[in-house]
# Entry
Amino acid sequence: LTKTEILTELSEEQYSEITRLWEITGVTNPARGDTLEVVRQTLAGGGKIILVREDGKAVGTVWLTSDFRRLYIHHMAVHPDWQNRGYGKLLMQDAQKIASELKLQVKLEVHKDNKVAFELYKKYGFTTLEGYLSMIKRDT
Ligand SMILES: CC(C)(COP(=O)(O)OP(=O)(O)OC[C@H]1O[C@@H](n2cnc3c(N)ncnc32)[C@H](O)[C@@H]1OP(=O)(O)O)[C@@H](O)C(=O)NCCC(=O)NCCS
# Structure
């Protein structure tokens, strides 16, 4: 039984289920600072976490944050045992629905070698911003 939850608040238990998916799929690392507190603040500020369960077990998730100008997609993750069964597409459909309800454009970053994710995003209408490189300053 597939069940999709759209979370606007996050319990510690939900956070640990989600971080487990992030870790096993390699989308996060300690340098990124994705703590429970940070995630909760993004939810309070209009972000959402989509969590898909299969028979109660967390199998896929995506984290949406908003700066009220754009919606950002982070940490799209489907448990390796459940990949290639359409859960990624399910998450993208729900993310798309939220973006259109909020009337926000959507941005995301994907590694150039991550073909599966890149193909998935293209399928949902994302195009690359030609010529732009992504930059970050971690130590402020
Ligand atoms: C990216 C990820 C979320 C996709 O989830 P998934 O549930 O396996 O994806 P789906 O089964 O819904 O497949 C969606 C689409 O991905 C693409 N895709 C899947 N396998 C592919 C492959 N081997 N080569 C190219 N494209 C592929 C296809 O476009 C596919 O759609 P189709 O089945 O209609 O052809 C999942 O692979 C994952 O968690 N990867 C590790 C974490 C990660 O890289 N996240 C993205 C960070 S930007």
